[in-house]
Write a structure and sequence with these properties.
- Helix content is about 20%, strand content about 25%.
- The protein contains three helices and seven strands; from the N terminus they run E-E-H-E-E-E-E-H-E-H.
- A four-stranded antiparallel β-sheet has the order 3-6-1-7.
- It starts with about 35 loop residues before the first strand and ends with a helix.
Length: about 140
């Protein structure tokens, strides 16, 4: 699983979202390394466990000679209170790390494999993530 070696603050504040505003990614919009990419169409927080599950699928699907690239890194800590604990009594303990993904972000890339195999690998990896995804190629982006 991915996690940072060191963090400046153990607990982060949640952050606010206005449902009326549509926020879109401004970075990570292009395919940099591979031929096909997995693009987020909705926003969500993706945990390191979910990234690891998608990585395992990609490893299995692309085979020995295929390459895959992970364009996400979970550096945001999230907390959770134990079950059956009442309101108040402070914030919960840190449980793991996640990354905030906005629509338009390229999350995974695949290269060195035939198109059909790359699309199938990315489709399977997309089922492990809590966002709606779209498979894009170099031609689609430019």
């Amino acid at each position: 699983m991915l996690f940072p070696k060191k963090v400046k603050h153990r607990k982060w504040q949640t952050g606010r979202k206005n449902p009326k505003k549509v926020h879109c990614a401004t970075r990570g919009l292009r395919i940099e390394h591979g031929d096909f990419g997995l693009k987020a169409m909705t926003s969500a927080r993706i945990t390191s466990n979910q990234i690891e599950a998608a990585r395992k699928v990609l490893t299995r699907e692309v085979g020995k000679f295929g390459k895959y690239y992970i364009r996400l890194f979970p550096d945001r800590p999230f907390t959770k209170k134990p079950p059956e604990v009442g309101m108040g009594k402070g914030k919960g303990d840190p449980q793991g790390f996640c990354v905030e993904v906005l629509p338009g972000r390229i999350m995974f890339e695949v290269g060195n494999v035939p198109e059909a195999r790359a699309r199938e690998a990315l489709r399977k990896a997309g089922t492990k993530l809590p966002v709606k995804v779209k498979i894009v190629s170099q031609e689609d982006i430019y």
